[in-house]
Amino acid sequence: MIAWLDDPRAVDPARTGGKAAVLARLAAVWPVPQGFVLEARSLSSAANGDVSGLLAAVDAAYAELGRRLGADDPAVAVRSSGVDEDGAASSFAGVLESFLNVTGATDLREAVRACWASGATDRARAYRTARGLEPAPRLAVLVQELVRADVSAVAFTAHPVSGRRDQVVVTASYGLGESVVGGTVTPDTWILDCARLSISALEIGAKERMTVPVAGGTREVAVPALLRSSPCLSEEQVRRMAGLALDLERHAGFPVDVELALAGERLVVLQCRPITALDRGSPPWREAAR
């Protein structure tokens, strides 16, 4: 029922879904928050079957995660991981449900149920139909340590609009990643040259809001005025993120879209998937200068 991200079984997307399987493969080499996966099951069985045994397994795994992190009732991120998610043609970005700053076994159970339910929404059905996917998905649920990010970022190893393969684009803003990924904030944007990791352009975003953890979940608050007009990352931090994204591209073999969180000096990978809008042709491989 449960596979830990450091368990070899977790790399199988048929078992843990596309998102979790990618993170399980990366966790052996790159910084990925600790966590476990409630293995994939059909939505009909999740909705109609006896899931008490599954949820009891979640309780036990959550207690074990707390022991590993040295915390009682640790704050976690709970995210859906569809079997056909984060593939070459379908990312499901923003389609399936995620919950941040979930604490306690009772709230975790509710978040797991809500993740299962998100796979059966009209929006999810329409997304699947538009891409010719099977109408009855199987969905896993990923539970990871919540990294309380000072800054969250998305790095693209090719320009997501122009398609240029000689550029890395980093977008970032303050707080947890919901604001950046959900598009509720205008982030800072850097464009870097792949070969030298030199910054060729910087556009400072408004960054008026940020997502922060609060009791029972998260909420958006105003960014202090003095911080809005300044870059949320140093040039060194931007280059570090771009270099990590290029390392992940080399590992994957194609341009990737990487979600990152920076807490102090700790930089972690939250998601890595293909840039599905791009032609995945094979340009000459690039070696980023270090």
Characteristic terms for this protein:
alpha+beta, 29% strand, 290 residues, disordered C terminus, six-stranded antiparallel beta sheet, globular, 13 strands, five-stranded antiparallel beta sheet
Q: Your description of this structure?
A:
By secondary structure, this protein is α+β, with helices and mostly antiparallel strands. It is built from eight helices and 13 strands. The chain has helices spanning 13-27, 43-48, 52-69, 105-118, 122-130, 178-182, 225-228, 235-252; strands at 2-4, 35-42, 76-82, 98-102, 138-145, 151-156, 167-174, 188-193, 199-203, 209-214, 217-222, 256-263, 266-274. The protein has a six-stranded antiparallel β-sheet with strand order 9-8-7-6-12-13. The protein has a five-stranded antiparallel β-sheet with strand order 1-2-5-3-4. A hairpin with a 2-residue loop joins strand 12 (256-263) and strand 13 (266-274). It is globular. The chain starts with a strand and ends in a 16-residue tail after the last strand. Mean pLDDT is 88; it is low at 87-91 and 282-290.
